[in-house]
Amino acid sequence: PPVWSASLNASGLAPGLLYRLCVDLDDDGAEKPPGDSTFEIYVGVVVSVLSPSALRSSLDVQPLLVECLPEGCSKETSAFLSTGCEFAESEGLPYRTAEALFKATANATIWQLVIPDLTGLTLGEHYRLCTDLDGSPNSSGTLYPAGDTGHHVFIAPL
Predict the structure, then answer these.
(1) pLDDT per position as a tens digit, 121-147
(2) HEC secondary structure over 21-65
(3) Is 108 within a domain?
């Protein structure tokens, strides 16, 4: 099947929110109006996973360093590893870790995560790094959904 791609200028969109992608198939809308593609796009703030890109499946403390856009992450930002960034269980088995809060470092754009208990994740698999800019959905007043940063972490069989 054909593969399509598009570059979007998301500079006017608020980070940490989900947006629906609308498409205008005939460009000027003369014959066909723009329509909802049903695709959701998460505007993330994580620029890169600095180290390590692989973690062990264990209870050991394994810090993960991430780079965020300036003023993109905060001490309220949380992250987790998952096969998908929604809040659910797959066939009764956990397929995501517990959430971990971002911790500041000496560099304003570099943040540390210590994701607890990786033992439920499958060795040799890549998991998505998901973030929620204002923390866990269980806290009161949550405004931002969890979303896929577009970055992965490998669970190494070491």
Answers:
(1) 888 889 999 999 988 655 555 688 889
(2) EEECCCCCCCCCCCEEEEEEEECCCEEEEEECCEEECCCCCCEEE
(3) yes
Read off the DSSP letter of residue 90.
B
Q: Is residue 15 part of a domain?
A: no
The pLDDT tens digits of the residues spanning 51-94 come to 877 777 666 778 899 999 998 999 999 999 998 887 554 455 54
Do the strands 54-56 and 147-156 form a parallel or antiparallel pair, or are they unpaired?
parallel
Return the structure tokens found at 60.
Answer: 């050991």
**Which domain does 96 fall in, by range?**
46-156
Closest C-alpha among 130, 136, 119 to residue 153:
130
What is the secondary structure of 68-84 as a DSSP string? E-TTT--TT-EEEEESS
Omega cis (within 30) before 52: yes
